[in-house]
Amino acid sequence: MGENALLAGQNxxxxxxxxxxxxxxxxxxxxxxxxxxxxxxxxxxxxxRELAATMGVSRETIRGALLILSTKGIVSVVQGARTKVxxxxxxxxxxxxxxxxxxxxxxxxxxxxxxxxxxERVARLAAQRVDAATISELEKLIDKQxxxxxxxxxxxxxxxxxxxxxxQSCGNAVLSDLATTLYSYQLDHxxxxxxxxxxxxxxxxxxxxxxxxxxxxxxxxxxxxLGIHERRIYDSTRAVLSTSEQxxxx
Amino acid sequence: MGENALLAGQNxxxxxxxxxxxxxxxxxxxxxxxxxxxxxxxxxxxxxRELAATMGVSRETIRGALLILSTKGIVSVVQGARTKVxxxxxxxxxxxxxxxxxxxxxxxxxxxxxxxxxxERVARLAAQRVDAATISELEKLIDKQxxxxxxxxxxxxxxxxxxxxxxQSCGNAVLSDLATTLYSYQLDHxxxxxxxxxxxxxxxxxxxxxxxxxxxxxxxxxxxxLGIHERRIYDSTRAVLSTSEQxxxx
DNA sequence: CCAACTGGTCCGGTTATTAGACCACTAGAC
DNA sequence: GTCTAGTGGTCTAATAACCGGACCAGTTGG
Lengths: 250, 250
Fold this sequence. Notes:
In chain A, 66% of the residues lie in helices and 4% in strands. Chain A is mainly alpha-helical. At the A-B interface, helix 1, helix 2, helix 3, strand 3 and helix 5 of A face helix 1, helix 2, helix 3, strand 3 and helix 5 of B. The structure holds a DNA duplex.
């Protein structure tokens, strides 16, 4: 891939890094506890020293987070007295991150099962909601895949674009992002598996079946097609892992 | 809740804050691109100045991230020449965060739909895999909920424990964490909705139905019970949001 | 050979975070 | 009312991370 493709254009992989300070993250933790009712109005917080020890940050950082909250009228901080919750209106503060586990924190089987479930749902919605422009885009991506028969890397680029385009057409951002994340999990192993003889051809064939079902608006066929495809990917991923484990154990 | 419960014990809400630097995050971004095949061995990266501009960080930060990668033998950095990928073995580097969107980034309808889907799957697995100890724990939590009839906060604490205990019993960490995250999304609104007359009683009744289905190992009844419960929550959450919007628009 | 572009180094600055010490206030026990 | 333990408040010194910019030295392609 030319380096310009990394920097700009549709689905450019490199984006701005948005970074939150530790203080901000601690403030959000408190806000989440208040929003969820774990802490409520009138409750006293543990002392700053205890919070610092428990959360593994400095007392200064805790104080900074509490300053954020007291500025918004959520907690009351008084010298000598315990800090207290005085309002449960945490509006304006982001709640804690949605789901911040690392991809590698989960077992392959769990991810596989999750992906099957999400993709089936995505498939059914996409079959109902896909438009002609998306169908056309997917056709072009199949052509790109065919052109990349002998080039696993270029194939995977088109593969990813193919899958994420379908995910996005389901019309539900939560499901689309979930599906994309679960898809991405297997990319590392996938790249090694795709080198096997006939693997690319098989994937392209699967993709043709998927696209045909989408064009027909056939939700059952689409869900089945994606399911078969995903199981094949799962099997080849396991084979790669098994080979790596055998090598690692020698 | 006593503040000691925040600090220690089972399911203690306050945990250590693990914070990654911007440099670490950038290094992981590169590692993910390499693992996924977007970048492969032999590819030259964009220049440090271009990367800095695109990712919105300083050139120094980019250089630090590349130092991490060159130390691991993943990229080759040579004065005057373009930085190149020399290995795709990114083992040891965490891939980018699983799914780092904020809860509040998604439409309520999307989250609701996602939660319905995940909980149905979780329900079916839990019905098969739940053990006697978990059933006993859930019974105790129903008792706690009943005891909290006039206390919305205490009720929500037991409510949360009830749901997350079911999620954990499904045996799939991905699905369990997803379900927990989607559940948490509505907590802020839920707390306001739970104050409505009869809301707690209705929830407890729903929970009894859910527990009965779980005890019977009846996956269909469990999925249906959770679905009905979740739709009721969705409706009450929307009512709260609608009221808030009306107030905000005055 | 040369110019343009690259990485390498350095500087001055800001911000964030840390650990610790000490001061002043609060609240509960007596 | 007094006293003490525990609380928050302030300050210091230090380190780390990050930033923006300038300038030097090496590479590469024309």
